[in-house]
Design goal:
The chain has 396 residues and is an alpha/beta fold. 29% of the residues lie in helices and 23% in strands. Helix 4 runs parallel beside helix 5 and helix 10 crosses helix 11.
C-alpha cells in the first residue's frame, strides 16, 4: 500500500499549516494551524492553534479531503513526549522526535517510521550550533535516519530564496547588544518588543537590561503566559530579574510609577511587535495608557514582520505613530528561526530523501526548494512535488 499525502493547509500561502499522511487505513495529522491574516499572535499559531486544548482532547471535526472516510468523535489522551524519543502510535507507525532548534524551545523534527519508509517533517527548524537556550540540533541522529533510508522529506520553504545560512541566536544577542548598549539613551525611555514565545531572546534582553542598570518590566498577557510556562517546567527563571505585569489595573499602576520615577530607570519589554492594534505597544503609541513618549526615546523591534499584508499594514501604522512622537526606531534586530537555502541543502544531504515536498509557504517560495533540489540531482517531474492546499499525492 502506498503513502498518501494531503496538503490540508500552508501550501498555497503562509499560515494554516497542516499535512495529513495516510498509511493504509490510518491518518496522521501534522500541525493544525490558523490563517495568519486573521490571527497574527505567535507562536506557533500558524502551526497548532486551530484546535483549543479541549478540542485536542475531544475531536469533533477535522478537515476532510477524502482521506478519512469514517472519522468518529472520541476522547483522546494528550501524550507528552521527550525530545530524541520514539512513541509507537500503532502496530504500523512509530513517531520519533529529533531535537532541533527554532525560535521556540523544545522544537523537534518529526520522523514517521512506517512499513513503506520513513517520512521526515521539517516544517519549522534552523541549524543553530550556538543556541542560547536548549541543546544543539541532533545532527548525529539525522545522519542515522538518512542512512536508514528516507522515503519523503516535507520541508519548509519560507526563506528558501535567501542564499545563506540562517545566523545563530548568538548573533541576535550581539545585535541587541550593539543597539541596547551602544546607543546613547541616557535620560531616555527604552522599549523592546519581540515574540513572546522567544524565551532565548527574552533571556538575552534581560541580561542586557541588567548591564544598563535598568529595572526590567514585562508588560502584556502573552509575555506573562509564556514566561510563566517556561518557569513552570524549569526551562528559565526570570523571577529575580524581571517583573511580569499583565492585568489592566496593574499595568496602569506600573506605568504611572515609571513616569513618576523616570523612564530612563526602566527597560520595558512589551507585546505588539507586529503592530497588533490591541497590544501594549500600539496602545502606548496612541496615548491610551499612562506612558508618554518623548523625542529621542528608543523602541527596538527584535523581530521581523511576518510577511502577510495585515501585519505589514499594522506595523506601518504603529511606526508612523512612533515617528510622529520623535521616537528612535530600530527595526529587524533579529535573526530568524527558519532555515535558509544553504541549511536546506545541508538537511537534504543528511537525509538523502527519495521524494521532497516543499511546505510552509506558497508556490513562489516552494519553487526555490524545487530549484535547489534540481541542483542536487532531483527531478521535479519525478520526485520533487509542488503542492497546493487540498491537493493529494500518492507515493508508490
Amino acid at each position: 500500500m502506498p503513502i498518501e499525502i494531503c496538503a490540508v493547509g500552508g501550501y498555497s500561502e503562509t499560515g494554516k499549516n497542516s499535512t495529513a499522511i495516510k498509511i493504509d487505513d490510518e491518518v496522521i495529522i501534522l500541525d493544525m494551524g490558523l490563517h495568519m491574516e486573521n490571527y497574527i499572535r505567535y507562536t506557533q499559531d500558524e502551526d497548532i492553534s486551530a484546535l483549543s486544548y479541549q478540542e485536542l482532547l475531544e475531536v469533533n471535526a477535522v478537515p476532510n479531503y477524502g482521506l478519512m472516510e469514517d472519522w468518529k468523535s472520541k476522547a483522546n489522551a494528550i501524550v507528552p513526549l521527550n525530545l530524541n524519543s520514539k512513541y509507537k502510535l500503532s502496530s504500523k507507525i512509530t513517531v520519533e522526535l529529533v531535537n532541533m532548534t527554532h525560535s521556540i524551545p523544545h522544537t523537534a523534527m518529526v520522523v514517521l517510521h512506517t512499513p513503506y519508509g520513513r517520512i521526515v517533517y521539517a516544517n519549522d527548524y534552523k541549524f543553530d550550533r550556538q543556541p542560547m537556550l536548549g541543546k544543539k540540533p541532533n545532527f548525529e541522529r539525522l545522519k542515522e535516519v538518512g542512512e536508514e533510508g528516507v522515503t519523503l522529506l516535507v520541508i519548509e520553504s519560507l526563506y528558501a530564496h535567501e542564499h545563506k545560512k540562517t545566523p545563530s541566536e548568538a548573533v541576535a544577542e550581539q545585535m541587541l547588544k550593539d543597539v541596547m548598549l551602544g546607543v546613547n539613551a541616557e535620560g531616555r525611555g527604552m522599549i523592546v518588543t519581540t515574540f513572546s514565545s522567544h524565551l532565548a531572546r527574552l533571556k538575552s534582553i534581560i541580561e542586557l537590561g541588567k548591564k544598563l542598570h535598568r529595572k526590567i518590566v514585562f508588560v502584556g498577557r502573552s509575555l506573562s503566559r509564556y514566561v510563566v510556562a517556561g518557569q513552570n517546567i524549569d526551562l528559565i527563571d526570570f523571577r529575580q530579574d524581571a517583573k511580569l505585569v499583565r492585568h489592566k489595573d496593574k499595568i496602569e499602576k506600573v506605568l504611572k510609577q515609571i513616569m513618576r520615577e523616570g523612564k530612563d530607570k526602566y527597560l520595558l519589554v512589551v507585546t505588539g511587535h507586529q503592530g497588533e492594534p490591541k497590544a501594549i505597544l500600539s496602545r502606548l503609541s496612541r496615548g491610551e495608557l499612562d506612558y508618554r513618549f518623548d523625542s529621542g526615546d528608543v523602541v527596538i523591534f527584535s523581530c521581523s514582520v511576518i510577511p502577510v499584508e495585515l501585519n505589514k499594514n499594522n506595523r506601518d501604522i504603529l511606526e508612523r505613530e512612533l515617528r510622529n512622537k520623535g521616537v528612535r526606531i530600530f527595526r529587524d534586530i533579529h535573526v530568524s528561526g527558519h532555515a535558509c537555502r544553504e541549511d536546506h541543502r545541508d538537511l537534504i544531504e543528511l537525509l538523502k530523501p527519495k521524494h521532497i515536498i516543499p511546505s510552509h509557504a506558497g508556490a513562489d517560495k516552494a519553487q526555490h526548494i524545487a530549484e535547489l533540489a534540481e541542483e542536487m540531482g532531483y527531478d521535479r517531474n519525478k520526485n520533487v512535488h509542488l503542492m497546493e492546499d487540498g491537493k493529494r499525492i500518492v507515493l508508490k
